Amino acid sequence: MSKPLLEVRGLTKFFPIKQGFFNRTYGYVRAVDGVHFQVSTGETLGIVGESGCGKSTTGRSIIRLIEPTAGEVLFEGKDLVKLPNEVMRRMRKDIQIIFQDPYASLNPRKTIRQILLEPLHVHQVGTKAERIQNIEEMIEIVGLKKEHLDRYPHDFSGGQRQRIGIARALIVKPKLIIADEAVSALDVSIQAQILNLLKDLKKKLNLTVIFISHDLSVIKHTCDRVAVMYLGKIVEIADKQELFRNPCHPYTKALLSALPVADPLVKRARIILKGDLPSPTNPPSGCSFHTRCEYAKDICKSIAPTLTEIYAGQLVSCHFVQEGNDHIALHEDTWRKEVKHEL
Amino acid sequence: GDSSTTTTSSASPTLSTTTASNSAPSGNKILKIGLKADPPNLDPYGSSALVDRMVQNSIFDKLFDLDKDGKIIPMLAESYEVDSAGKNYTIKLKSGVKFQDGTDFNAEVVKFNFERNKEDKSKRKNELKFVDKITVVDPSIVKIELSQPFSPFISVLTDRAGMMVSPEAVKKYGDDFLNHPVGTGPFIFVEHVNGDHVTLKRNDNYWNGKPKLDGVEFKVFTNGPAAIQNLKSGQLDLLDDLTVATKLIPSIKEDANLTVISNPGMGYQGIHLNTTKEPFTNKYLRAAVDRAIDRDTVIKVLMDGYASPANSPFAPGNLAYGDSDKVEKPDPAIIKDLLAKGGKPDGFSFKFQIGTSPSQEQFGAVVQNMLKPYNITVELEKIEFGQLLENGDKGNFQALQIGWSGRPDPDQSFYDFVVTKGPQNYSHSSIPEIDKLATEGRQELDDAKRKAIYDKAMTILHDEANYVYLYHVNNVFGLSKKISGFNYVPDGVFRTATIDKK
Amino acid sequence: MSFLIRRIALTIPILFLVSIMTFSLIHLIPGDPARVILGQEATPESYQTLRHELGLDQPIVIQYVNWLGKVLRGDLGMSITDHVPVIQLISQRLPATIELTIGTFIVAVLIAIPTGILAAARRKTWLDYTSTFTALGGMSVPNFWLGMMLIIFFSVKHNWLPSSGYTPITQNLAQNITAMILPCLATGLRESAVLMRMLRSSLLDVVNMDFVRTAKAKGLNEFRTIIGHVLRNALIPVVTTSGIMIAGLLGGLVITESIFSIPGFGRLIVESVFKRDYVTVQGAILISAALVVLVNLCVDLLYAAIDPRIRAGEG
Amino acid sequence: MSLLLEITNLKTSFRTVHGKITVVDGVHFSMLPGQTLGIVGESGSGKSVTSLSIMGLLPQTGYAEGEIRFNGQDLLSYSEKQMQNIRGNEISMIFQDPLTSLNPLHTIGRQIQESIRIHQKLKKVEAKQKVIALLKAVGMPRPEEIYHEYPYQLSGGMRQRVMIAMAMACEPKLIIADEPTTALDVTIQAQILDLMRELKEHSDTSILLITHDLGIVAEMCDQVIVMYAGQVVEETDVNTLFDNPKHPYTIGLMNSLPDINKDREYLAAIPGSVPFAHQMPRGCRYSTRCSQVMEQCLSEAPPLIAKANHKCRCWLFAEGGLGYEQTAPGSEGINQILSY
Amino acid sequence: MKEFKKFFRTGLGLIGALIIVSLLLAAIFAQQIAPIDPNAQDYNHILEKPSRDHFFGTDDLGRDIFSRVIRGAQISIKAAVISVGIAMLIGIPIGLLSGYYRGFWDEWIVMRSVDAMQAFPFLILALAIAAVLGTGFGNAMLAIGIGFAPSFVRITRGQVLALRSLEYIQAAKAIGVKDRNIIFGHILPNALSPIIIQSTLAMASGILAEASLSYLGLGVQPPAPSWGSMLNQAQGLLSAAPYAAYFPGAAIFLVVLGFNLLGDGLQQYLDPKVKE
Ligand SMILES: Nc1ncnc2c1ncn2[C@@H]1O[C@H](COP(=O)(O)OP(=O)(O)OP(=O)(O)O)[C@@H](O)[C@H]1O
Ligand SMILES: Nc1ncnc2c1ncn2[C@@H]1O[C@H](COP(=O)(O)OP(=O)(O)OP(=O)(O)O)[C@@H](O)[C@H]1O
Ligand SMILES: [Mg+2]
Ligand SMILES: [Mg+2]
Q: How far is CA C200 from the centre of its chain?
């Protein structure tokens, strides 16, 4: 494997909870708690997990929209966390982000032209004429027309806005794109358009993407490698095919089995997790999943497992998987036990 | 019905300054007097506000008093003698007078009061600064030696400097005496609710006969029309100053239940022209301003006639009053001539500092209007009273509006105002001749001679025109017809001892 | 409970800042208190004596520290013009203002609640428009003018109600009330307008909320929905507004008090400013700020009574 | 079996700034007792408005025309008072967002009790017992305590359970669930769907399940309606729908779903977006996005055509045209349709 | 055009705009509308009832009240614009910066000062400031401006807080836009609506405050015809000449109403929270 474009080491973000006398900090939301992963050039890494597990915080910490509490973010070998603000500001040309909400992510008071010109202007890319040419090309690449440039965001539908958001991110030719729930707010039919567009662009421009989503099917469709997060930690990270074929962490399994499948003929045994996602303010001791895990033993309550490679490229954070406990094999079958009923 | 009878004031214990011995007046003959401001200090020693005197005169008796013609008459004094040099006064006191706290009034008390009033912190110090030595001859005779002849001396004793306070009470309350004033007067202090009212009750043991009223309540009305409204509705029996709303006086006159008493007052209103600041360093320009203002019209417009035109500090009734106070109608020719002499034939402009009340604003506007025909442009500047005084002290003004409430003796409206570096000489004038005459005036004992001195001084001052005397405000009271026995005294202060109420 | 403690803790710096602001403001005001006290009869010596006596000849920081030290010991000092403890002045003047405030609030609530509900319920009808317009009108009337108009009509023309004067409740209830009607109307009408608009828009906000739809889906009738679900939720912003209103009134009744010659707290401050009685001004403003803070505290308590989330220290 | 709910030509309009807009235009469908009917469709297609029309809970600016027969009675002709007796009693509703759908100021107990006490006139004590039983039934831990708790103290999933308990309180004949799991996480969604399935098995309540997730429809429903731009475009039983969809929109919808079990390079996205209510095309409403669009579609709006138990609003369905059959899911042809 | 129509529909706002336009016209054409010199005193016609010569009667110096009321419009407009201008000039930058950067300054200096200033009764704050600065129109404006500034700090800051976490602001940051440009180029324009609404409403209060200060004798210098000082003069004459109080009061009422209506209209128009 070539040298990774991005390497995240021990990324941690605790949001202080301020209350009490004089706003004293009395606790922390452990939004991201020691996350490690790598992304190679040209690769798409998916981050999946339930609401509040720290996906966005991870994404935003990487480009320092949120200042991480600890950890390193090595981008082309440079630690972004340590860069002075002004240097970081210039670095932003290389890492761009696409946001979730197509309505909130465009400044309603600027025309599309202004929105697209701004990054070029900020980073002093090209001459005036080149910039114009640049945005006119880009707007067509994302499937809109030159005529659209002088309109305001409110003239566009959600899908079109998302295209504009993508164009804005791509216009400075970044090396890494972080797509934070880029399609979650869209209807299926529109979502498909955008997913196609992203795929197309990825091929054309050899993009490296961190794709954040809570929707496993979207992740599966889009990504090369997938990291599953639970309560601020990565519990499993693997190649897409491996992860979906052979999910090892009990949580990954549950997540996969909970997904409704658009086929009435597929009836399968579900793993229904008990209880709710614990609060990140006060995460469970030991393995943070133990409160909902049907295999949890005493060890899980006291000792937090570490992310360990069990197969080539498949890292899992579970005591039993690491010990080669056979519940995995056992379960592997259960969730695949799909019975096709013919009508 | 008689609505005023329903308000018997009961001092609420938490709020009042009442002591255990003082209780609310009983009975319902309570005289309700409206005051235009809250009396800040009822102790003669520390009092500087005019309105204090309205209340003090019912609590304290003075050594001397004024009668209804403004003549000095003895009060706690029986009589007095002064030697020919005008420096030694022997005062014989009434006997058998007791303070409201039961202690005796005698020569020791007088000595105590004089000495107290001469302390550094006393506001009376200036008035008594020539008092050198006080000797108790016997319990009813005191001898007072002055350091120099001072003809207004007895007149000074008709006011706060002559009020006798109880030494026992002073010892008892110390600095807080002002909230527990005890005198020999017809009414006893009950309570003072700041900003609202002062209540007094009858002194049953009053030496000059038991007062007819059960008590007196002074109500504070900073809003003149509101006070008048209360007078009309019977909430008040007596109102101290109707000139704050002269436009409303006719309606009081029309009211069958009310009378209006209007008499010439002792004070004057006018304008200080700063002789140390351009353009008023020039006496012709000062004179031009002085002559250009039509006093009659000012009185008609601003005071609805409840004032008399002024050209001197001496109001009608004052011993120095006379021709020096006569005013002439403005004569454009004379004024043009003065302007020419002053080197400003085409007029000039100046800033005129006035107070912030509506009536002061109107005053300024009228002056402005009257000077306009002569191309004298007046720019008005509203300044708060405290600042106005400070500006006066420091001479930070060109023209400044401040009047004087007046006192019985001519010297009390003259000396400090005109002598070089006099504390109230805001014009900052220095005229050796005037300094000399002013001193003569206060040392001369003979009335006729004094008048001549002041007449002479006024001719000089007319020429100099560093103060533009405009008018003497009348003392105008509103009075319910339910009240009898009211005697007007020219100092404008109520004497409640003689009043009765139906 | 912790939110209460936090609230109280928060007030300390506020009061501290208020005291510094008041102190510096009042000492920046030109016109020396000593000069004002002495009046026209001052002599330079008496002036210096008094300045010394009042401590005005000391550096301002020392003056502040001395003052603060006393305040911390519960002593607001002596009024320099009225020669009584400031605390006494304040306690003499506060009842009238508190009564005026309560009266105003009652007037405001009596008018605002029914009209606000009516306007919200009959939204976009002439009733709504009229009351909205009237409310905007009410908000636009300068209260000193309204006061004058009320006096002209009720006192001057018809002599139905007294135009001024204040009788403490303890003395004569009937007189107290008759004297309070006009002033309370004069300020209350404006405040009712503010409150009514607030209530209306708050009601409309709540009416559109999901849980109201849930309530209706349960089969509740209009009345039970409004009373049981809408009103209580809508009251939350209204309570805030009322808090702000009451806090503002406590010191802001200056003009009403002066028009109607009521010896109130607002007038005490204004008069003291004019008299340069800085000790009283400082004390009074500090107390007024403390009252504002107290009112806000009550508002928070009310909040907590209404909203369980706040009780639990969330949100 | 007699129909529980029968909706004929429902037309719901709003008075707006742009004049009257009709957002639900000619919706027909019917439900049998015990049936679970799913309504799917894109955002804005009129799913919620349809359900609110049934409940008579449209906002003041909206009004419904047509017929909504519930147990044979036309609800649209009911007075507000009569509707109040139906709501929460015979038809109840579960809303999308369990956070905002509960009154933050009332306890859970009080909120569930409310409908019981109105409709069944139970005493307080009895009502309380019933509420606790209900809470148990929806799988709430510590029901006695929860009874006294406030919504903010519960998680999203628990709140949705409360909503379900509330809907079940009076054993209604019909529960309308408008996107009951959209706001929830997948694992929680699985819990809630599981619960709903279980509850349905134990009662003969019908469920009108509104969703935009075809997966949920496949798992939960017997019969399915597909809505597009305020109209029903297809209605059939769930197996037929997934096996043999007829309307190009339904097909498009299925093809645009990324499928966890299949690997496809591109999704077959439907180009364009839903037209606005006030600028609907004259002919077929889907004609602007349809890959099969014909002359006829542009000029003439197709009716909802019924064949056996399959209804479809498409001219091709009427003709049974061949080219149409070729585009069934799985065929690769449609995958070539790029979105731009 | 559509925008205008939308605004037009909020009829009350339009009435407000109309009132303000008339006020502006009155201020501009004061000379033509009321040719009588507002300061000309005519001692032979003191306190006359409204008549053909003097539409609103005369005051206690025989000045034409109609002329004075019309000229008063100039002062009122100036009062509204200047005081609110000052408040905005002070309040908006502070609100923007402290809301954007948060932290110690924001929480402990700016917000606590705002709290402290708002714990002051407004009129008394303005009065104290006016007393410090001395009487006069300019100083009164400064006093009112300072008194209003906290509300602008609050509203601006609130907007910044709401906006700064919005994705388009985050996007601007992610692009690498400098803070200054984010604050003034992205946040400020989007924060403007509530600020504009607030400023119209503040103008209404500004007029009232000017009138109040003038009424308390701390406003304009005489003989400038401020409505507040006219009322102050008139108060002494309520029973003798009530009409002297009617007209300046009515003028204040109308203009303040105008601004309130406009503010309300703008709110309907600009604030998405106010639903149709
Ligand atoms: N600015 C913040 N201050 C405090 N807590 C925060 C902040 N931002 C996020 N959090 C908390 O951090 C945790 C992780 O949030 P994050 O937004 O990263 O989750 P997520 O995985 O993106 O969830 P979602 O799918 O809902 O977007 C959550 O518990 C959230 O409440
Ligand atoms: N009160 C209203 N006034 C005007 N139009 C409305 C109103 N409520 C809904 N609409 C419109 O009706 C259409 C259908 O809305 P509806 O809420 O039924 O959609 P939906 O299918 O439930 O969508 P979603 O999946 O987003 O919930 C939309 O275009 C919406 O804009
Ligand atoms: Mg997120
Ligand atoms: Mg919906």
A: 23
Residue ranges around ligand 2 (CB below 6 Å) = D 14, 16, 23, 41, 43-49, 59, 61-62, 212, 277
Which residues are paired to A46 by β-bridges?
A211, A226
* Cα–Cα distance, D150 to D109 (Å, whole number): 9
**Who among A101, A107, A123 is closest to E176 (CB)?**
A123
A31 close to ligand 1 (CB < 6 Angstrom): yes
Q: Does E1 touch chain A (CB under 8 A)?
A: no
Number of residues assigned to chain B:
502
Tokens coding B127: 């008035």
Q: What is the 3-state secondary structure (H, E, C) of B438-500?
A: HHHHHHCCCHHHHHHHHHHHHHHHHHHCCEEEEEEEEEEEEEECCEECCCCCCCCCCCCCCCE
* Closest ligand to the CA of A13: 1
Q: Which of D312, D319, D336 is nearest to D245 (CA)?
A: D312
Among D61, D86, D99, D103, most C C-beta atoms within 10 A, so best to mutate, is: D103
Fill in the DSSP letter of residue B243.
Answer: G
E236 touches chain B (CB under 8 A): yes
Closest C-alpha residue for ligand 2 atom 30: D44
CA separation for the pair A117, B479 (Å, rounded): 84
DSSP per-residue letters across C246-308: HHHHHHHTHHHHHHTT---HHHHHHHHHHHT-HHHHHHHHHHHHHHHHHHHHHHHHHHHHH-H
Distance CA C172, CA D6 (A): 73
Where does A3-111 have alpha helices with state H? 55-62, 85-91
- Give the angle subtended at the CA of E78 by the CAs of E77 and E80, to the nearest 5°: 65
Domain limits, chain A: 6-94+174-340
Residues contacting residue B452 through CB under 8 Å, at least 6 positions apart: none
pTM: predicted TM-score of the whole model, two decimal places: 0.81
Largest pairwise CA distance in chain D:
67
Distance from C-alpha of B476 to C-alpha of B488, rounded to nearest angstrom: 10
d(CA A247, CA A227): 11
Cα–Cα distance between E188 and E198 in angstroms, integer? Answer: 14
Contact assessment for residue C295 and residue C102, using Cβ atoms and an 8 Å cutoff: no
**Nearest residue in A to C11, CA atom:** A22
Encode D69-105: b = buried (16+ Cβ within 10 Å), e = exposed: bbeeeebbebeeeebbebbbbbbbbbbbbbbbbbbbb
Alpha-carbon distances, residue A104 vs A112, A162, E176 (angstroms)? 14, 10, 18
Digitized pLDDT (tens) for each residue of chain A, 343 residues in all? 457 899 999 999 999 876 544 556 678 889 999 999 999 999 999 999 988 899 999 999 999 999 999 999 999 989 999 999 999 999 999 999 999 888 888 998 899 999 999 999 999 988 999 999 999 999 988 888 888 899 998 888 888 899 999 999 999 989 999 999 888 888 888 889 889 988 888 888 888 999 999 988 899 999 999 999 999 999 999 999 889 888 889 999 999 888 888 787 776 677 888 888 888 888 898 899 999 888 888 888 888 888 888 888 889 998 887 555 544 444 444 444 443 333 3
What is the signed CA dihedral for C184, C185, C187, C192, rounded to 10 degrees?
110
Q: What CATH class does A6-94+174-340 carry? A: alpha beta
D283 touches chain C (CB under 8 A): no
> In whole angstroms, what is the distance from residue E129 CA to residue B499 CA?
47
What separation in angstroms does the CA of E134 have from each of B142, B381, E215, E228? 51, 10, 15, 18
- The chains in contact with chain A, meaning 3 or more Cβ pairs closer than 8 Å, are C, D, E
Give CA–CA dist A284/A292, Å, rounded: 10
Chain C stretch 7-36, residues whose beta carbon is closer than 8 A to a beta carbon of chain A:
9
D48 C-alpha to ligand 4 centroid (Å): 4
